[in-house]
Amino acid sequence: QQQVKQSPQSLIVQKGGISIINCAYENTAFDYFPWYQQFPGKGPALLIAIRPDVSEKKEGRFTISFNKSAKQFSLHIMDSQPGDSATYFCAASLSGTYKYIFGTGTRLKVLA
Amino acid sequence: DTAVSQTPKYLVTQMGNDKSIKCEQNLGHDTMYWYKQDSKKFLKIMFSYNNKELIINETVPNRFSPKSPDKAHLNLHINSLELGDSAVYFCASSQIGSPTGELFFGEGSRLTVL
Asked: A42 and B103: CB-CB below 8 Å?
């Protein structure tokens, strides 16, 4: 019930391509779904987040697609750049519980 | 100004020793966390404090003891270190009730137990 499953574990994309990372959750009570980006030697940082009342959120080249009925959400990185190479974590949270459940992470490498 | 700062950044120590990691946030947040990231990059919550009160205590060995002297500081003390404790420990903070509930992470403290 508390798991967030993330795939793929690693991803290699050519510069200019689209990177897609998928996550699935089980607990329908979750109401906040952020994506965090982590560069080597740094802590994770919030990239973009969505709440279940919308199906899509876009910020620049980054888009979250959310499918409430399927209990799935995904991160799309358009026009991927070498500087996007990092580990990406999806997460799910229940308001007021102070607790985030993180996915297992996806290591993205964008080739120049 | 670093928002969430942790010290030390690196720790190398022998099995059986005791070590501490300190964390401070200057964001005015009311909640602080310790996360453990293992070699496979899995991020797992260990503890959370809200206004100095322990609110999350995951299944963590008693050898780990967090302490929050005030809401801007959260320290982690580890007794009798074991090989399996080797990991990167991240401190984080958030403001409960904020519109985004965003977690702000420190840069991590890499602990290596020999």
From this structure: no
Coil vs helix vs strand at B24: strand
Which member of A42, A49, A98 has the closest CB to residue B96? Answer: A98
* Least Cα separation, residue B25 to chain A (angstroms): 14
Cα separation, A63 vs A72, in Å, equals: 14
Please give the Cα distance from B41 to B19 (Å, whole number): 22
| Tokens, residue A21 | 């990372």
Query: What tens digit of pLDDT does each residue of A9-66 get?
Result: 999 999 999 999 999 999 999 999 999 999 999 999 999 999 999 999 999 999 999 9
Long-range CB pairs of A71-75, under 8 A, 24+ apart, other chains included: A71/A24, A71/A25, A71/A26, A71/A28, A72/A22, A72/A23, A72/A24, A72/A25, A73/A22, A73/A23, A73/A25, A73/A33, A74/A20, A74/A21, A74/A22, A74/A23, A75/A19, A75/A20, A75/A21, A75/A23, A75/A35, A75/A47, A75/A48
CB atoms within 10 A of CB A95: 13
**Across the strands, what pairs with B112?**
B12
Report helix, strand or coil for B50. Answer: strand
